[in-house]
Amino acid sequence: MRHLLFSAFFALLPIAAPAGFPPKPAAPATVVEKPATPAQKAGPAAKLTTPKIPAPKLVEPRLSVARSGVATRPRVALTFDACMGQADERILSTLVRERIPATIFVTARWLRKNPQAIQIFLQNLDLFDIENHGQNHIPAVDVPTLIYGIAAAGSSEAVYQEVAGGAAAMQAAGFSAPRWFRGSTAKYDASAIHQIRDMGYRIAGYSLNGDDGSLLGAGAAEKRIAAAKDGDVVIAHINQPTHAAGEGVARALLALKKRGVEFVRLSDVEGLGNDDTTQ
To answer: With contact defined as beta carbons under 8 Å apart, do 228 and 76 qualify?
Structure first.
């Protein structure tokens, strides 16, 4: 009887797998598959795209003045942009002290911050032509775009306001009505050029970039401007007194004078620009 009880007890115990044999795998779980969604059936979702607006065709007009034709006395027109910030006294004082004529393009923003420079200009109108650089230093392009990271005017109405607002600020400061316009970045599209011309302006391009937006070093700016040729229109900046370029610009003015250069303002001689900017 005892033998039968022990046999029944051991018969109820689980039997371990012999060493070296893998355990019996568990029964697989039942997986309930969900029906595929329409997007999954269609494959990867298509990316949403915004229609691209074609970039406008921009021009950066050239401008030159009538040459003197005299090798020892080349004719050069100095033009300076006063965009924002403060007047660069290194350049301004050199122009006044050396009696060097120049054309200065001012914005309404710059005029508001530089009353002392305005008085110097008004006291030296035999040296300086003050012309229109716009109201808020916005590129005169009538379609939305970015130029050097600056948002363009973006419409014909905004181009008009940029030009007309700059002129109004100049006259409020005591200057004559401007005859030349140069927009921020000096880039335009064709329709904006025609609009500005219809407002009675000639558009001031250039032939020699003297300071790369006042970003050149002093030595590079000096070398570039000092090499100006007969008929060149130089563009540089007179609103960055903390930049090294201004020091080089001032030195270049002295070098040009020593060469015997004939300095002229844009109102002094005939200027010829491309892209329908002066004719």
So the answer is: yes
